[in-house]
Amino acid sequence: MLFNEFTKGIFKENPIFIILLGLCPTLAVSTQVVNALGMGAGVIFVLLGSEIFVSLLKDFIPERIRIPAFIVIIASFVTIVDLVMQAYAPSLSKSLGVFVQLIVVNCIILGRAEAFASKRKLGESLLDALGMGVGFTLGLLLISAIREILGAGTITLFAVGSFDGVIRIPGLASQPARVLALAPGALLVIGFLKALFNWLEMRKQSREAWAVAASAPSEGGTS
Amino acid sequence: MSYIGIIITFVFINNFILTQFLGLCPFIGVSRKTDSAVGMGFAVIFVMSMASLATWAVYRLILVPLNIEYLQTISFILIIAALVQLVEMVIIKISPPLYKALGIYLPLITTNCAVLGIALIGVRSNYNALESFVAGVAAGLGFLLAIVVMSTIRERLDREWVPKPFRGVPIAFITAGLMALAFMAFDKALLKNLLG
Predict the structure, then answer these.
(1) Is there a contact between B113 and A191 if contact means CB atoms under 8 Å apart?
(2) B173 interaction partners in chain A (CB closer than 8 Å)
(3) Of A29, A87, A93, B56, whose CB count within 10 A is highest?
(4) What is the mean pLDDT of residues B140-144?
(5) Are the beta carbons of A86 and A67 closer than 8 angstroms?
(6) If you measure CA to CA, which chain A residue comes closest to B71?
(7) pTM passes above 0.80
(8) What are the CA-CA distances from residue A126 to residues A107, A118, A176 (Å)?
């Protein structure tokens, strides 16, 4: 089922919350929603480009040097993103800083290239890249929305026309919990979010165990 | 900036893990036991200092004269990958137990954002050769400090009762968050008071 390759990256194997990949940029750029959107777009582009290339070139790259070869492919796409961002979105490029170039060491990308694209066909790799990228972006959006709404009382988006791109939330904007917008807030937010996801997973598992026990009472233990 | 200023900046004020969020994967992954945390910390110090020096040389002596600075991402990551291979070979030769302890995390230093991060920050701050080297060592020391403190806390946490959903990674992140809160005491004012 091809569609599964897309959706699994969003929910079941969400790179940020479930397999904990690509955390450094997640925490560093999640101070504003607009940064999360920019970073997500960059990561989706690099993931797509590198998974397509790795998937097409997998039969030509010798086994022994595959990792360096993948890294060169990824670095090329990261350079493209970096230069395009500097040219067309200089303010975004400035606020993301060194983290645009650091997409190259984002474990999600090398991880997917190595674990997925180097073994599968083009179509599957494409959907996998899209799913993982969208999953990463959604995770990043969730964290940055929590941090910006509670930490600054605003939601920063792109400026369009007379709208300056900043939505101020009444009440919160005057007295935000500033610590969430600072460095410690990022670590605290992801810690609590991960605990929440663990709890949801545990609840689902215990429900399934109950369902199994209820449908097969003869096999259900007395424990 | 003086060398002492660079050291204080990268160890305390801009601690790579707690304020810059560079190198989190090994920080969470290898901080379960203190001895492997110490090993990882020293491996990172070594790789970071070598990498910042090597990337400085390549950037100033090759990329800038040839006007191909846009190749910095590709060239830096390749230099770092080669360096990590070297360190891996040295550790296998010198200390097989340490190699066993670090396990899969040693190759992962290649994709450790801290190493590429210090190289890029060195270039952006226009450091000279010695300054980049000192910055690399200091950032590595900051990593060592954070990961060792973290691992001792986690060893104690293992013996405490923690609510089930928080066990493992979530509580580690919350601990790191509290450590980062403590590190907020180190700011630019500290540098001013110390160095005048």
Answers:
(1) no
(2) 187-188, 190-191, 194
(3) A29
(4) 92
(5) no
(6) A79
(7) yes
(8) 18, 12, 41
